[in-house]
Amino acid sequence: MQDQLNNLIQSYAGIASSTIGHVLDQGHLPQIHAINQIGHAVGRVRTATLHSVNGMALRQALLNSQPGDVLVIDARQLEHRACWGEQRHRAAIYHQLAAVVILGAVTDVTALRNMKVPVFASSVSCLTTRQQGECVVEFDQQIQVGNTCISSGDLMVGDADGVFILSPDIARHHLEQFQQMEIQERQKRDQFFSEHSAQDYYHFTASA
Q1: The pTM of the whole model exceeds 0.85
Q2: What residue ranges carry the coiled-coil annotation (predicted)?
Q3: Burial of 24 by CB count in 10 Å (0-12 exposed, 13-18 middle, 19+ buried)?
Q4: Cα–Cα distance between 182 and 35 in angstroms, integer?
Q5: What are phi and psi of 159, to 5 degrees?
Q6: Which is it for the CA torsion 32, 34, 40, 43, positive or negative?
Q7: Which residue in 26, 80, 98, 113 is a FRET match for 199, CA 20 to 30 A apart?
Q8: How confident is the prediction along the chain (208 residues), in pLDDT tens digits per residue?
Q9: Could you tell me the CA-to-CA distances from 30 to 2, 23, 154, 181 in Å, in that order?
Q10: Do 167 and 148 meet the contact criterion of CB atoms below 8 Å apart?
Q11: In angstroms, how far is CA 187 from the centroid of its own chain?
């Protein structure tokens, strides 16, 4: 099973989120955007749901993660309070996560924008978690976002255009279609720029 998921992760490394968005609605995380400069992120989801102002137990989510995982934290109960910042992101880099997705706010945005490992969130806030009261975090529990159900073991695909989280079955079912769409898009682009100069259309020379 893990080998199959690893194969999917490798295959989706070449699939843009907008390609998925041409076909699927389910799996899209609305209002979740890239906070730092990223290219493309793909990985296996591990979920954590934060129910308290005290977020200290999120450290355990990092310890439970494997290199290449994507930590998805549901912090919606905290409303405008940020549960992720520079210090926790350093730990995510140390543990070699593929990305971090926060359903909620982040802080230390100036630092995050200059750090490695993609981080996605819905907003930025100076109001943060703190060591106050009991810390209540659920690990590896399903997270419901609209019509999308997120579970540990799902596949996350994220880039500057947004985030999709797909079950392995859905990801496998649509993979060939997405691959063909990517090929067709590259062919259209190559055909256009075989007849036109990319410098006339971009501020930089577009990559092949």
Answers
A1: yes
A2: none
A3: middle
A4: 25
A5: -155, -165
A6: negative
A7: 113
A8: 678 889 999 999 999 999 999 999 999 999 999 999 888 999 999 999 999 999 999 999 999 899 999 999 999 999 999 999 999 999 999 999 999 999 999 999 999 999 999 999 999 999 999 988 888 999 999 999 998 999 999 999 999 999 999 999 999 999 999 999 999 999 999 999 999 998 899 987 545 4
A9: 28, 16, 17, 23
A10: no
A11: 27
Residues in Cβ contact with 94 at an 8 Å cutoff, skipping those fewer than 6 apart? none
- In terms of C-beta density within 10 A (0-12 exposed, 13-18 middle, 19 or more buried), how is residue 132 classed? exposed
Q: Give the distance from CA 43 to its chain's centroid.
A: 8
Inter-residue contact 112 to 119 (CB < 8 Å): yes
Assigned token pair, 156? 């996350």
Nearest-angstrom CA–CA distance, 6 and 68:
10
**What is the C-alpha end-to-end distance of the chain, expressed in Å?**
35
Q: What is the amino acid identity at position 183?
A: I
Displacement of CA 109 from its chain's centroid (Å): 17
What does the alpha-carbon distance between residue 42 and residue 26 come to, in Å, rounded to a whole number?
Answer: 17
SS3 57: coil
